[in-house]
Amino acid sequence: MTASSIQILRTVSQVRAWRKQCFFNRESVGFVPTMGALHKGHTYLVKNSLEENDRTIVSIFVNPSQFAPHEDLDAYPRTLERDLQALEGLSKKVDAVFVPKVSEMFPSGIVLDVAKQKGAFVSVLGCSEQLEGKQRPAFFRGVATVVTKLLNVVCPTNAYFGQKDAQQCVVVKNLVKDLLIDTTIRVCPTLREPNGLAMSSRNEYLSQETKDKCSIIYKGLCAGKECFERESASGKPVAASTIVEAVKDTYKAMSPEWQVEYIAVSHPESLEDLDFVTKDIGATVSTAVRVPKSDGSGVARLIDNVQI
């Protein structure tokens, strides 16, 4: 691997020593947790942190606890050298990158079968079970656990997450509130490809042709948002089912082998299903779509949302 000019920290003790110096210098610390395979969406979060904090640290860790036994943990892209180059290419470089081994983050060990796991885990009840949580039952338990561990290690002033993962943002905000963690969660807008496709590490699984066709995912969500704006002009609440139908009408043009897992209209803070949407509260309109991978090995699962 090419040598990096960025300080790479491999252990919890190294990060804590680095953070202790920041405390001593009374420097604010911004933190961007990632699973690597960095794209412009990630570097956008990093740029926000660099602008708003004295120091910035990025973590790169493919978290096994958020994968089910049948999911793509082994296939998940691992591109550390390229990731470091992307961070070095920014006009202002990050101060440190935390790249731990699995044994460092899970000292009791970790297996993918939840029933066989040992150790401490974090569940954020009430906002983890619906939407993505319904499709992937152990997913947010794994996310909440690793985010809690990372925040405990880094103790950042601010931590940065992307709006594309809307449910994750709600889960993380709630765990920080309920566990009394002294970190401000900053949610940044979704970065998109020119055709509207939300930037995601999973886009690497797709052929260019499929990426082009994926523009329909965002178009459908925008159709739902436009429906709300049109129907709410009278000042009356808009039925969530009307918004969903507007999205579905757009998705009728999808390739027949694609599978829409859900289209949901949810409360923006609790993620509870809404029957009606009002302008004063708004909603999160979200979807998950399975599309074929370019190598024919299965499907990639793409998620997206818009706020209304």
Walk me through the structure.
- The protein has 308 residues and is of the alpha/beta class.
- It is 35% helix and 19% strand.
- The protein has ten helices and eleven strands.
- The chain has helices at residues 12-24, 40-52, 80-88, 102-105, 132-135, 139-154, 166-178, 208-213, 215-231, 240-251; strands at residues 7-9, 29-34, 55-60, 96-98, 158-162, 184-188, 238-239, 259-266, 276-277, 284-292, 299-307.
- The strands form three sheets. It has a six-stranded parallel sheet with strand order 1-4-3-2-5-6, sandwiched between helices. It has a three-stranded antiparallel sheet with strand order 8-10-11.
- Helix 3 links the parallel strand 3 (55-60) and strand 4.
- Helix 6 (139-154) crosses helix 7 and helix 9 packs antiparallel against helix 10 (240-251).
- It is globular and about 55 Å long.
- The protein starts with 6 loop residues before the first strand and ends with a strand.
- The mean pLDDT is 95.
Topology diagram in text:
Blueprint: E1 7-9, H1 12-24, E2 29-34, H2 40-52, E3 55-60, H3 80-88, E4 96-98, H4 102-105, H5 132-135, H6 139-154, E5 158-162, H7 166-178, E6 184-188, H8 208-213, H9 215-231, E7 238-239, H10 240-251, E8 259-266, E9 276-277, E10 284-292, E11 299-307
Parallel strand pairs: 1-4, 2-3, 2-5, 3-4, 5-6
Antiparallel strand pairs: 7-9, 8-10, 10-11
What portion of residues belong to β-strands?
Answer: 15-25%
Using the CA coordinates, give the radius of gyration: 20 Å
> Terminal Cα separation, in Å?
45 Å
Q: Looking at the structure, what is the overall shape?
A: globular
What is the number of E strands? 11
Major beta sheet, specifics?
Answer: 6 strands, parallel
Q: How much helicity do the residues have?
A: 25-40%
Low-confidence stretches: none
Structural class: alpha/beta
Order of helices and strands: EHEHEHEHHHEHEHHEHEEEE
Count of helical stretches: 10
- What does the average pLDDT come to? 95
If strands are numbered along the chain, what order do they take across the biggest sheet?
A: 1-4-3-2-5-6
